[in-house]
Amino acid sequence: MIAAHRHIDSYKALLARVDRARVETDRLFDLVRPDSLYDRPIPERHRIVFYIGHLEAFDWNLLRPAASNLPPFDADLDRLFAFGIDPVDGGLPTDQPSDWPSLDQVRLYSARTREAVDAILDEGGVSEVLLNTAIEHRLMHAETLAYMLHQLPLEKKIPQPQVDVPERGQTVPEVVEIPEGSVTLGLSRNDATFGWDNEYDAHTVNVPAFTIDRYKVTNGQYLEFVRAGGYQDRSLWKAEDWNWKTAHNISHPVFWKRAGEAWHLRTMFDEIPLPASWPVYVSQGEASAYACWSGKRLPTEAEWQRAAEGIPRESKLGPEHGYFDFARWDPAPVNAFPRASSTFGVDGLLANGWEWTASPFEPFSGFKAFPFYEGYSANFFDGKHYVMKGGSTRTDRSMLRPSFRNWFQPHYQYVYAGFRCAGK
Using an 8 Å Cβ cutoff, are 239 and 133 in contact? Predict the structure, then answer.
């Protein structure tokens, strides 16, 4: 009987998380002015209207098999809104707004689908693994939608308030010595914590001694690289990164905007003088070039995890450890939260921007794709994506677990991702 009550309580807690995740995504669509919902803020991504349908379609397509008597009520829209895009071949979507259903049709589909999903959830027959998958999928989109809407022109958004950031004085770059030692990557299959298929199986890796920056690289540091001609020095760039940069005329971070002789930063709802103490957000290719210019390199996934040893995690996290759980739209100074430092004194590893690593996104030994979502990870084990660790201000605390692995193409500039450099 006690076990049954625990199961019921756990299920209710997951349903509450479904509701909270829906609130986060609903409020993102509400901040876009209605006449801009068919815009495409990022060339590589779908139009905003797709995601209004996609979030509900994903839950429906995932959970409908749990209620075998429920037929699809619009199979065409189920397919249309089933999957996003990840164009690694350089091709960009060319659809026009007229190719999409009307906003009324999309909203009606979303409302009917959410109602159908609620009926399935009320029956109580959905496994916790499927529920966690639906929840974290939506929470991931709450973050990806935020950085996508970040690129939407300011006049097309309804400004929202955000908390002020603490100021702790100028950041002095420091290097931390990390001694040789072992680190556990991944999640044990016996662990009660939910994990995605790429997080399994847990294994121990020995990491030789190395050095790593105490703080993320700031806008101010990266500005030195820009002013030193880093974007024009071919010797700093890997061939594929140089070719990408040249083909797309990339000369600075995508969040930056030149303002006469100075630089401004495009925040979510404003344009401000470049905050030198905030972390710079760049692609992995840009991060690698900066690391080379500084005489260093990007850390591996194992090195990053080793450097992060001892930082607070998930349930133990509070506001004194940083902005996460959608607490702020824009980042904070890299030294804003010293209480979140690791055992070795490495700062700012949990939020304030994901961190690029040098590790290609690859399966761990014993990898098994989720049978209900076979392509989630496996489709990206192609050598064209790199692991990111940490989290941003728009990351839910559930994905701050040590085993969580994020990944993107090396030439994707738009994600809330910065980096720190390693040596030795």
Answer: no
Q: Are residues 152 and 197 in the same domain?
A: no
Are 80 and 204 in a shared domain? no
> From the CA atom positions of the chain, what is the Rg in Å?
22
Cα–Cα distance list, 80 to 61, 111, 121, 255, 353 (Å): 12, 16, 24, 31, 32
300 and 152 in a common domain: no
pLDDT at 88: 63
Q: How far apart are CA 399 and CA 313, in angstroms?
A: 10
Question: Residue 161: inside a domain, yes or no?
Answer: no
CA–CA gap between residue 55 and residue 403 (Å, rounded): 25
Which pLDDT value is given to residue 4? Answer: 44
411 and 319 assigned to the same domain: yes
389: nearest Cα among 410, 404, 408, 411:
404
Shared-domain flag, residues 349 and 407:
yes
- Are 321 and 196 in the same domain? yes
Half-sphere exposure of 78 (CA within 13 A, CB side): 15
Choose one of 156, 186, 213: the last residue of a domain.
156
Nearest to 213 by CA among 421, 358, 355, 417: 421
pTM above 0.90, yes or no: yes
Interatomic CA distance for residues 60 and 136, integer angstroms = 15
Q: For residue 53, give its domain range.
A: 2-156
Supply the CATH number for residue 120's domain. 1.20.120.450
* Tokens at 260, concatenated: 């006469």
Beta strands 386-389 and 406-408 are antiparallel
Structural domains counted in the chain: 2
d(CA 302, CA 61): 35
Segment among 8-17, 30-39, 213-222, 294-303 with least mean pLDDT: 8-17
Same domain for 63 and 105, yes or no, is yes
Reported as a single tens digit per residue, the pLDDT across 267-319 is: 999 999 999 999 999 999 999 999 999 999 999 999 999 999 988 777 678 87
**What is the tens place of the pLDDT at every residue in 283-292?**
999 999 999 9
Determine, yes or no, domain membership for 282.
yes
Q: Give the full edge-to-edge strand order of the sheet including 422-423.
A: 175-178, 210-213, 422-423
